[in-house]
Write a structure and sequence with these properties.
The complex is a heterotrimer.
Chain A (H helix, E strand, L loop, with lengths): L1 H10 L3 H23 L30 H37 L1 H16 L2 H12 L3 H12 L1 H15 L2 H8 L4 H37 L10 H10 L8 H4 L1 H25 L1 H5 L1
Chain B lengths: L1 H27 L5 H5 L8 H10 L6 H14 L12 H36 L4 H15 L2 H15 L17 H39 L2 H8 L4 H31 L1 H6 L5 H11 L2 H29 L1 H7 L1
Helix pairs in contact in B: 1-13, 5-6, 5-8, 5-10, 5-13, 6-8, 7-8, 8-10, 10-13, 12-13, 13-14
Chain C lengths: L1 H24 L2 E5 L18 H8 L4 E3 L5 E3 L2 E6 L5 E6 L13 H13 L6 H4 L2 E8 L2 E6 L6 H6 L7 H4 L17 E7 L3 E6 L12 E5 L4 H9 L5 E2 L5 H9 L4 E5 L4 E6 L9 H10 L2 H8 L4 E3 L24 H10 L3 E2 L5 E2 L7 E7 L3 H16 L3 E7 L1 H8 L13 E6 L1 H5 L3 H5 L16 H11 L4 H18 L2 E7 L1 E5 L25
Helix pairs in contact in C: 9-11, 16-17
Classes of the chains: A mainly alpha, B mainly alpha, C alpha+beta.
Chain lengths: 282, 324, 528
């Protein structure tokens, strides 16, 4: 319980982190209630194509007359969902690899860390491009691609944290006294690793959201889903920069991506500061 | 020395794994390069003719044979012909690589200079207005999607203000030598390099700032100050020099990643670098080019890693001891 | 009064100035192309459009299509066809030369045919393989004998296959790695930078009309936005890229740009696996075709710059298009549901109709992930079908991946694995009326029959039309064929996008709009 209290405290520990928390709360609010707040069904052709902003369409309409404002509200859910799914998959997997690697040691450690090295070394975006083309466009595949390319860094960080816990004298003593693996894991290692994993998760979410937008922009996302990235894909593909509609078609989704990423980064840093003073010391 | 050998061994394993992935992943993608081998009207070919095309490119052989041939070709330097352009892969890559290096090199240089400068100043005046504003600024820029940033720069500076060209690395019909040529290249470089610089600046800045704060808290700095050494001297001679160590690692790592990560920016600006080449090769299933470009990228990351590994222990004996 | 004369004066000055500018800069054209076209030889160019058009600037054909797609003699002075339709006696124009100064003779033509027979080419080997024998009684005469009569041989063969120089190609064993490109056409390649540009320069040895430019520079701009921004800011004079509907208005309003518009032949269709479950029932396909609001597609997706499709596939502008088959019979959602019930379907709990065997009208609908127009059209079509009791799962796929499902290895004999899919047929398919390829049940004749359609009556009409040389009789057969298509709905043709092109009239304003092909064609680059 005290852990969550510490997290809560971290969220409001400074003006900056409070700012981040409020921003994120706002984005989550939109993600949850956006669809019921949106003036139109974003798939419905509700106006003339390429209408500029008006009382009926606050941000105008897109290339086939769908309401951009509604698209963006719905897109919030998709973008956040992809970010969260990708990040949690990556963190769960990365944490598991990190902990197992550190506790098992020996050849398991060597093999797992070499694989981590490989993923870290292979150029990130090209790998994502090839993987996205390989799996084909769908929401879950996009999340999977992102997870595959981002799990390695948290795995490394968690491993070193977990190693340093294992090497603490009292944990070493417990091991020497024949403490069971599970016991040591649950009693000593996990409590030390979870805060780290949490802050890594927050940072991973922000990079997932950015990656989703980039992949969608390159045409490797799922254009059927209305995410912020695909809104930008269509804007670019259908000449938003040429017919002057970019101020209301390109800027808003871009800003929302930035705001969301910013809120995650601010919170992630605050969590790191509060939950892991030791990490900072090193 | 052992430590170096160990690292080299690791990189060798990584390289082999990357090479293998590099071969099988593209071939596992649905679809095949037939359309680019046989031309647009591939649909008019008879099955025998299609088989003939595949045989000509060795695509009819079992996968493991193709794999062995591919491994061999890496060392002979005969990377085959691009399916799309009909030119040797090496040649295709060599015409692209300089542009990517120029773009990445410039951005990295500028980002490193300013990152170090801002980081040093910010930490020196810790908590001051410059520290706060630069910190917030760097986080803000870090949160912008790079392609979006690039698009906005084009919209504002190329389309509305017309200060810079919109696409490419040179004006195709422009001057081909002397200062006008260099001027042309620079004009094309400004916007993409700015985008990439803004995207990488904050990383260097943050590491520099952290590392400076760390150094400034060390005993020898306090000693120096108490001995009455001038502040300027302390900053330049002791603090910055020592703080640069971790920054150099970050810069080297950035170099490796940027070469591949510039894909999006190259796409936005139609910049003829390795990134766009690779992206196009994926779409068109141009296996030889895909392999070649991927290989070059992987090697550049590994070289960057080796360089950072190699310099780090040289500069800081503690690491060498600890690691071996 | 004073004001008016002042205005007139300045107008005159302006006119003089623009004249001066035009005559000065009119000799170089900067034309943005879409992608690298390799070394631009017949074997290494990449795209049917604009690659082939660029190729024809460097290479000549025996015949050349005019703006109405009628073949006119080009390298040939004319051809005599034997009564049985098997032998073509072609006389070449006198004193033809290659760009390098060597003479172009009948033996080059014979060599070309032989070369395309021996060295597989996706486009040119097909007509070359129709040839049984070539003779060259003298330097200016070529006698071609076909294996079977072919009504389209001049149009698809003689007016399509570029003649290559024997003295350059005789020893080339791997044409796909050919780097030397020498032809007899109005321009020659003088500079090529991979992925950057080609420089085409006037060929002094060209036999025909004077080239309109000293020099044509073709920067490669892959990105649409960059292309048209460059056009707006004057960095280029024309783009081969079609202006997408959303930009037409903008360009038309810009005083220094002009827009050329005409019918396009590139077709957006829904191909259907007509062998699969409920989709095998032509009545079901008829209901599907009837539910789609074609006008809305053209209005909202193409913003009016296009023509609605019809069951006969060929667009109204095509000479062989049957006027009775240019529109689908339409159903409202209620009519469609009623019709489905008459056919023995019943509405399931979720509103989706099911037949007696439990087959749900539930289909996966594939579309290209990189083509926004087709994506948007598919979105709207899926909505129309859903309202009529169908359940459509829209799935965007990368182009190569989609092709692999619909048309594995581009070989219809390998079957297919899809329900319905957006398929774009490039302009030549409609322009050359390749209905036989699209519908014949035989894998060889029906090499574009990606839906697995099979109807013996249709097969026999196609076979008859292929050997019918008489124009009126041939048209009759094509009309009958399209009537059959309206009954069976082997595919659904959604629309044809108009060809819209933008250019700077101050630089050049003498473009030829070739029906269905647009302004980028060989004739546009020659003086008339």
């Amino acid at each position: 319980m005290s852990f969550w209290r510490a997290v809560l405290k971290a969220l409001f520990s400074s003006p900056i982190s409070t700012f981040g928390t409020v921003l994120l709360a706002f984005m989550i609010f939109i993600a949850v209630f956006g669809p019921s707040l949106s003036p139109y069904d974003p798939r419905e052709v509700s106006g003339r194509p390429f209408s500029p902003p008006s009382a009926e369409h606050w941000l105008g309409t897109n290339d086939i007359g769908q309401d951009i404002f509604s698209e963006i509200l719905w897109g919030t859910r998709v973008s956040l969902l992809i970010g969260l799914v990708a990040a949690s998959t990556a963190i769960v997997f990365g944490t598991a690899v990190g902990v197992v690697s550190s506790l098992a040691g020996g050849w398991v450690d060597v093999v797992l860390m070499r694989i981590t090295d490989i993923v870290l070394t292979i150029p990130f975006l090209p790998l994502a491009v090839v993987l996205a083309a390989f799996l084909g466009p769908s929401l879950w595949n996009t999340a999977a691609v992102i997870a595959v390319v981002i799990w390695a860094r948290p795995a490394r960080v968690v491993r070193s944290q977990s190693l340093s816990i294992r090497n603490l004298t009292y944990v070493e003593a417990a091991t020497a006294l024949g403490g069971r693996f599970n016991h040591i894991l649950i009693r000593h290692v996990l409590p030390g690793v979870v805060p780290l994993a949490l802050s890594q998760f927050i940072l991973a979410t922000s990079s997932s959201i950015l990656t989703e937008a980039s992949l969608s922009f390159l045409g490797l996302g799922d254009p059927i889903q209305k995410s912020w990235g695909t809104i930008l894909f269509y804007a670019q593909a259908r000449g938003a920069f040429l017919n002057g509609s970019w101020p209301w078609w390109v800027i808003p989704p871009g800003l929302l991506i930035s705001i969301t990423v910013l809120s995650f980064v601010l919170i992630g840093r605050a969590l790191e500061d509060v939950l892991m003073p030791r990490l900072k010391a090193r | 020395m052992n430590w170096y050998l160990g690292r080299l061994g690791q990189y060798a394993i990584v390289l082999v794994a990357a090479l293998t992935l590099n071969f099988f992943l593209p071939r596992a993608m649905p679809g095949n390069p037939l359309q680019f081998l046989a031309g647009e009207d591939v649909g008019l070919l008879s099955p025998e003719q299609i088989a003939q095309v595949q045989a000509r490119y060795g695509l009819d052989k079992p996968l493991w044979q193709q794999y062995l041939r591919y491994l061999g070709s890496i060392f002979t330097g005969n990377w085959g012909f691009s399916y799309q352009a009909g030119l040797p892969v090496i040649e295709t890559i060599l015409t692209r690589l300089p542009w990517t290096l120029l773009l990445v090199g410039t951005s990295l240089l500028v980002a490193s200079l300013f990152g170090v400068l801002f980081g040093a100043i910010a930490s020196w005046y810790r908590g001051g207005s410059f520290d706060t504003s630069s910190l917030v600024g760097s986080i803000l820029f870090d949160s912008l999607p790079t392609f979006w940033l690039g698009m906005m720069l084009i919209a504002i500076f190329a389309v509305e203000l017309r200060w810079f060209p919109i696409f490419g690395a040179v004006t195709p019909w422009g001057p081909k030598s002397g200062w006008p040529y260099i001027w042309d290249i620079l004009r094309h470089l400004v916007l993409p390099a700015t985008t990439l610089t803004l995207a990488t600046l904050s990383g260097t800045y943050l590491v520099m700032r952290y590392s400076m704060l760390d150094v400034l808290g060390q005993d020898y700095i306090r000693t120096a100050r108490s001995k009455g050494v001038q502040e300027r001297q302390v900053l330049l001679k002791h603090a910055v020099r020592n703080a640069l160590l971790p920054v150099s690692t970050v810069i080297f790592l950035n170099l490796g990643f940027l070469v591949g990560g510039a894909t999006v920016i190259e796409t936005v600006f139609s910049y003829p670098g390795i990134g766009t080449l690779l992206f196009q090769a994926v779409i068109n299933r141009d296996y030889p080019v895909l392999q070649g470009a991927f290989l070059v990228l992987t090697i550049s990351v590994i070289v960057a890693n080796i360089m950072s590994d190699a310099t780090y222990p040289l500069l800081d004996p503690r690491v060498r001891k600890g690691a071996s | 009064m004073k004001k008016v004369s002042k205005l007139l004066l300045s107008l005159a000055a302006l006119a003089l100035l623009s004249l001066a500018l035009a005559s000065h800069s009119g000799k170089t054209l900067r034309m943005a192309i879409l992608q690298d076209e390799g070394t631009l030889t017949p074997y290494t160019y990449q795209t049917g459009y604009p690659g082939y058009e660029l190729l024809t600037m460097v290479y000549d054909t025996l015949y050349q299509l005019d703006e109405n797609l009628i073949p006119q003699p080009w390298l040939a002075q004319g051809a005599e066809t034997s009564a049985d339709g098997l032998t073509y006696t072609i006389t070449l124009k006198p004193d033809l030369k290659w760009a390098d100064g060597e003479a172009l003779t009948a033996s080059d033509v014979a060599f070309t045919i032989k070369y395309f027979q021996d060295n597989l080419h996706g486009r040119f080997s097909t007509p070359a393989n129709k040839v049984a024998a070539v003779e060259t009684p003298d330097e200016q005469t070529v006698v071609i004998t076909l294996k079977a009569p072919d009504a389209t041989f001049i149009q698809n063969g003689l007016a399509d296959v570029p003649i290559i120089p024997e003295h350059v190609w005789a020893d080339v064993t791997d044409p796909n790695s050919m780097v030397v490109s020498i032809g007899s056409g109005p321009y020659q390649i003088t500079e090529y930078r991979t992925d950057q540009f080609y420089r085409l320069t006037e060929n002094a040895n060209f036999w025909g009309p004077k080239p309109a430019f000293d020099e044509i520079i073709t920067p490669i701009i892959k990105d649409q936005t960059a292309t048209f921004q460059a056009l707006q800011t004057g960095e280029i004079d024309v783009a081969v890229r079609k202006v997408s509907p959303e930009l037409v208005e903008r360009f038309a309003a810009q005083s220094d740009l002009k827009v050329a518009q005409g019918p396009g032949f590139s077709a957006s269709t829904i191909q259907i696996d007509v062998t699969k479950g409920a989709l095998a029932n032509p009545e079901v396909r008829k209901i599907m075709a009837g539910l789609i609001d074609y006008e809305k597609l053209v209005e909202n997706v193409l913003l009016g710059f296009g023509v609605t499709g019809g069951p006969g596939f060929l667009p109204p502008a095509h000479p062989l298009s049957n006027p009775n088959t240019t529109e689908y019979s339409r159903y409202t959602p209620e009519e469609a549901k009623q019709r489905l019930e008459e056919l023995g379907f019943s509405q399931g709990a979720d509103g989706v109709y099911v037949d007696a065997d439990g087959n749900r009208l539930e289909f996966e609908y594939l579309t290209y992930s990189d083509r926004p127009i087709q994506l948007r059209a598919a979105e709207l079509v899926a909505q129309d079908l859903r309202e009529g009791g169908f359940n459509i799962e829209l799935r965007a796929m990368e182009r190569q991946a989609l092709v692999q499902r619909v048309w594995p290895d581009f070989d219809v004999s390998k079957g297919r694995n899809y329900d319905m899919s957006m398929v774009n047929w490039s302009a030549p398919v409609a322009a050359q009326a390749r209905l036989g390829s699209m519908l014949h049940s035989d894998f060889v004749t029906g090499n574009l029959n990606v839906g697995g359609y099979s109807n013996p009556k249709v097969d026999s009409i196609i076979e008859e039309a292929a050997v019918t040389i008489d124009a009126a009789k041939r048209q009759e057969l094509f009309f009958a064929l399209q009537q059959k298509m309206a009954e069976d709905i082997p595919l659904i043709t959604l629309f044809f996008e108009d060809g819209v092109y933008a250019y700077r009239p101050a630089v050049y304003d003498n473009w030829v709009f070739m029906a269905g092909q647009g302004i980028i064609n060989k004739l546009s680059f020659l003086e008339r």
